[in-house]
Amino acid sequence: MLSLGAVRPVMVSLKPLLPSFFPQKAPLFSAISRRVSLLSSSAWRAHSFTSRASNPLHNVSVEPCYLSCCMPDRRLRVAVLLSGGVDSSVALRLLHAAGHQCTAFYLKIWFQEDFENFWSECPWEEDLKYAKAVCDQVDVPLEVVHLSDEYWKYVVSYIIEEYRCGRTPNPDVLCNTRIKFGAFMDAINSMEFDYVASGHYANVIHPSADQINKPSVLELSKDMVKDQTYFLSHLSQTQLKRLIFPLGGISKDEVRNLAAQFDLPNKDRKDSQGICFLGKIKFSEFVARHIGEMEGIILEAETGDFLGSHRGFWFYTIGQRQGLRLPGGPWYVVEKDVKNNVVFVSRNYFSFDKRRRLFRVGSLRWFSGLPPKQMHELQCKVRHGPGFYDCSVEIKSGNVGGEDVAVVHLCEDDQGLAAGQFAAFYKGKTCIGSGVILESWDDQGFPVCEKALELARMEDKSKLGKPVKIKVKTEIPEGSQGKEGIERNRLVAESQAAIMS
């Protein structure tokens, strides 16, 4: 099998990557290409594209509607990213059914070897076993690509540094942009594939042959709950032009039905959750290993009351509810003082005067190369999921490091905005680009009283004594924000904290 060299991750320190969030062409990617070129190009083609007789037991007739995103009118050579899960496996089988020459690639990315209790279980081996079994059904070659070093340098280290700075990064966006459709694409660049495919729920509309210079377009998938355009919103136009997403016109239920129809070995396998490189390790445990712990204090934002201690501000994100271990709640993280290692909390997170609908976005990337002409009739996603906000966007030139910044005005309030996360922009069903939410709120942040700010700056916090006894919260009348608003904002806040649980 193809191996790009087993590498052991080395800890590196990255400065926050704003505003130049993604390198256009990292020198490391050229090194990947050199390693791939060690394998004879002609020998690789002979191995990958030799015609093979498929097992007749697995030649299943597929309805044409399921092949609509597979370019069935052409015969292509497609590199298919195969994870061992159901979605990518069905994507492979649909491309195969459409008559394309497919080669599957399993990306073996970073895993922390010194977590001995988990490493012995080799969490990636089960994925690879399923991937191989899926390929064997229809005699599709499977290659294993080692991108451990690249994943560490361009995803994991960035995540660590962002949490160290008090921000909340998005590993899925980083992995798609830098690894799956970054380092991997560069690695196979000399191998003459027409397209790269994966099991993402999204649509890519490519221009016709006589309009090849026009940009490709990223559109919402049929399944709005599973739609993953948010995670793909920071790709470049060059990356987008090389992609096919066979599941863009299919719902998750239909994918499961197709998996059963194909009799896939993983047809009953559950969808993966969390960050792929961690396996069975909790994210909080991973953060503790690489950033450590540093005891700090928890203060009530409105009163400055000393409520308790925490392990380090980097374990908490804005809107987090779980893990605070404070009585009389629910309590929510509303602000963080990174310099003094203080976490501010409140039980009034959802009151009207605490809501946010104005924020700023940097590291902007537009699929067309330019922001849209009409900036006042857009939609915005501030997290993965089916929910959109109508919004208007105003571009401010040269605010951060000389790069443009977008000031976003939502039509509704949102409580879960966190610096470091992405905001993806849409015009109708078309995703037009995205950027990274910045710390600056233009005084729209959660109000913290002066007493709390003074206590946070206190050098000797042992003078605070023992935490105050927390009184039972007086309930806010439900009519002040409405049942739907309470429930929506509760889900928003809990979703922001899910990655840390």
UniProtKB/TrEMBL annotation:
<dbReference type="Pfam" id="PF20258">
    <property type="entry name" value="tRNA_Me_trans_C"/>
</dbReference>
<dbReference type="InterPro" id="IPR004506">
    <property type="entry name" value="MnmA-like"/>
</dbReference>
<keyword id="KW-0819">tRNA processing</keyword>
<dbReference type="InterPro" id="IPR046885">
    <property type="entry name" value="MnmA-like_C"/>
</dbReference>
<comment type="similarity">
    <text>Belongs to the MnmA/TRMU family.</text>
</comment>
<keyword id="KW-0694">RNA-binding</keyword>
<dbReference type="GO" id="GO:0061708">
    <property type="term" value="F:tRNA-5-taurinomethyluridine 2-sulfurtransferase"/>
</dbReference>
<dbReference type="GO" id="GO:0008033">
    <property type="term" value="P:tRNA processing"/>
</dbReference>
<dbReference type="InterPro" id="IPR023382">
    <property type="entry name" value="MnmA-like_central_sf"/>
</dbReference>
<dbReference type="InterPro" id="IPR014729">
    <property type="entry name" value="Rossmann-like_a/b/a_fold"/>
</dbReference>
<dbReference type="GO" id="GO:0005524">
    <property type="term" value="F:ATP binding"/>
</dbReference>
<dbReference type="InterPro" id="IPR046884">
    <property type="entry name" value="MnmA-like_central"/>
</dbReference>
<feature type="domain" description="tRNA-specific 2-thiouridylase MnmA-like central">
    <location>
        <begin position="285"/>
        <end position="347"/>
    </location>
</feature>
<keyword id="KW-0547">Nucleotide-binding</keyword>
<keyword id="KW-0820">tRNA-binding</keyword>
<comment type="function">
    <text>Catalyzes the 2-thiolation of uridine at the wobble position (U34) of mitochondrial tRNA(Lys), tRNA(Glu) and tRNA(Gln). Required for the formation of 5-taurinomethyl-2-thiouridine (tm5s2U) of mitochondrial tRNA(Lys), tRNA(Glu), and tRNA(Gln) at the wobble position. ATP is required to activate the C2 atom of the wobble base.</text>
</comment>
<dbReference type="GO" id="GO:0000049">
    <property type="term" value="F:tRNA binding"/>
</dbReference>
<dbReference type="InterPro" id="IPR051305">
    <property type="entry name" value="tRNA_2-thiouridylase_MnmA"/>
</dbReference>
<dbReference type="Pfam" id="PF20259">
    <property type="entry name" value="tRNA_Me_trans_M"/>
</dbReference>
<keyword id="KW-0067">ATP-binding</keyword>
<feature type="domain" description="tRNA-specific 2-thiouridylase MnmA-like C-terminal">
    <location>
        <begin position="357"/>
        <end position="437"/>
    </location>
</feature>
<keyword id="KW-0808">Transferase</keyword>
<keyword id="KW-1015">Disulfide bond</keyword>
<dbReference type="Pfam" id="PF03054">
    <property type="entry name" value="tRNA_Me_trans"/>
</dbReference>
<protein>
    <recommendedName>
        <fullName>tRNA-5-taurinomethyluridine 2-sulfurtransferase</fullName>
        <ecNumber>2.8.1.14</ecNumber>
    </recommendedName>
</protein>
